[in-house]
Amino acid sequence: MRSRTGRWLGALIALAFVSVASPPSLISMQAPASPARWEEGAALADAPDVNPDPRIVEITLEARVADVEIATGQRVAAWTYNGGLPGPLIRVRVGDRLIVHFTNRLPAPTTVHWHGLRVPIQMDGVPGISQPDVAPGGTFTYDFVVPDAGLYWYHPHVMSAAQVGFGLYGALLVDDPAESFSTPIDEVVMVLSDIEIDERGRLEDPDSGGSTGMAFGREGNHVLVNGRERPTLLARPGVAQRWRIVNAAKSRYFEIDPDGPRFTTIGGDGGLQAAPVDSSTLVIAPGERLDVLFVPPGAAGHELVIDWRLFNRGYGSVEARIPLGPLFNMRLAGPAGALSGRPQAPSRPIEPLSRAGAAETKIELTIAQTVKGEFEYGINGIPFFKNKMLHARPGETQIWHVVNSTAWSHPFHLHGFFFQVLDESGQPVRPLAWKDTVNVPFKSALRIAVRFDEDRPGEWMFHCHVLDHADGGLMGTVLVGNAQPGSTATTQHVHPTP
Ligand code: C2O
Ligand code: CU
Hints:
By secondary structure, the protein is mostly beta strands.
């Protein structure tokens, strides 16, 4: 309780907890031609591919504690992949095979989960279900074919509120060489996150604020773009940018506000959506990705401030909060692009999943207080340590009615399969998109359709991506097919952590 956030969470304890009842001719994309050193302020490291086969990307990834600089003069010993914050940007083409030789040099067990990728269960990185923990000093080789284009990300699935909060996350960009734009564009991958650093310059205790801190979802006191606090990016005047954004923060939602210029969202979690959507701000919940076009306005020398707002994700999330400053600056540099302007926004047809005969399942996101007065989240009132698996037949489509009866919003994430959001509080959600994470606002409900493809049997997790909530019980599993003899799916979970 030393930090600002800790004290503020402490103040929340004094307030009455209100339990809320449920209701409620195109040219091909060119290599980015951005100004020299355009991303100097926020460059992502790459992961050298050691495999000569053009369709195999083979890299090494090492989790270790390393000293990183998040702003000039502000350093912290963070938990990192390959010594950087975030970890390296892994870049593959759709259909490539990715081999990752992983070593754990942390002082704690860990795993790597490939968020959003439709991989076999053995590669999903969930301890006790898909693989054993990787102990300190241990190794594990992840090896799978990458089936879908889009921006994905990777992070641990052991004590993930702590480990992600300490800095363990990285982006994985799956290119589709067939995608093309009507004008040249500059592509920027942005990993948004935050980190909590105490007065002594160390990582804050991940349990600060106790059970109330968990119930709220702890946010860091430094907001980061590609591991830097308020970096300056250079952009070409008049040349459209394609922002590939992932929110890797463990609890924080971002509403990105460029103060004027508009965004065109062309896709999200699982690639391009069915139609583009224009908006003046962008909301991105933890775990989600966005794919947006943005044309920086102004001439060379102009500097834009890309700000963000507190997003109301429930009780205590916007009131009396200390502003943390803008996300980043964008300085226009160099001559205007030859083919400047907004390109035609690409889209792809998405067929609605057939719901004929689809079983409906109610999944209520719940919170309760134990006899000791501690908060405990659950699925249908059952915290994860008492998990009751749901079941699905391979090839079956189900409609999940996700009801949020708590005072906080929850980014609902399903492993292994994409879903389509049908409606939110009865209103249809369009355009259609393939999602793996969707915000379920407090006191509301939505319905998603998911087809459990026959090629990926196994026990798959679903959980809130406010990782404190997941740790606090807001997780469950769905068993697709029958448990394999000898698999841990039939036994009690020994790791009640995401
Ligand atoms: Cu991004 Cu179960 O995780
Ligand atoms: Cu949550």
